[in-house]
Amino acid sequence: MNTKKLNLDLALQLVNKKVEPISLLDFQQFMKNVKEAGEFINTSLKEKRIGKDWLNSSFSLQYENCTVNVDFIENEISKQPVLKSFRII
Questions:
Q1: What is d(CA 9, CA 17) in angstroms, rounded to the nearest whole number?
Q2: CA–CA distance from 17 to each of 21, 24, 32 (Å)?
Q3: What is the β-pairing status of strands 54-63 and 40-50?
Q4: How far apart are CA 14 and CA 41, in angstroms?
Q5: Which pLDDT does position 31 carry in this prediction?
Q6: Which residues on neighbouring strands pair with residue 56, listed in sequence order?
Q7: Which pLDDT tens digit goes with each residue over 30-88?
């Protein structure tokens, strides 16, 4: 599996997305089309406070042959997550 190509393909899909905001569902839908990833296993979440008003949510989508790590930052007041980073490993 070429993870560099998958990361680039996913980035292009997210850039070309017409509707905002980007959500975890976008990553799950992308991975459904990646046969080499194998079957979906589970999702894990780690949350960490960043300063007084910010929360970092790190998701790991685990598949048989790879893992998709996705980080969102969320303001406590607005409650709207913003994509910080993602990586397929």
A1: 12
A2: 9, 14, 17
A3: antiparallel
A4: 23
A5: 85
A6: 48, 73
A7: 888 888 888 899 999 898 888 788 889 999 999 998 999 999 999 888 888 888 988 88
